Known about the structure:
The structure is a single chain. The protein has one domain (2-112). It has 5 helices and no strands. By secondary structure, the protein is mostly helical. α2 packs across α3 (55-80), α3 crosses α4 and α4 packs across α5. It has helices at 2-15, 24-51, 55-80, 88-97, 99-112. It starts with a helix and ends with a helix. 81% of the residues lie in helices and 0% in strands.
Amino acid sequence: MLRVLFLDISSVARTYPVMESKSPEVKNMALSILTAAAGAVCLIMLAALWRSRHFLRSLCFSALTGNAALLAVCWSGTFTGIALSPNLFTVGAATLLGLPGVISLLVVKLIFGA
Length: 114
């Protein structure tokens, strides 16, 4: 899973012009930091769900609301101009992180454009 996440993040970093002018060492360090941060956020989210008394119910509810929000963003993208394509990274973030994950994806989309 982390390998797929790393490959998807590296393809995202290649598409944004912010990373084009940087040296390969800076790109690798940035991708390592992004991968570590994504892993840490996923572990924190799973720990928070585990601490609740109903782990599976909380995980299913978080996944359901996150994917419903992602679907709503995809459908409303033609009207708002900001759309998230449903790929492995976005669906994973929506499933694991729920609604805050989709909001974070939208914020990153607004900051970096593309």
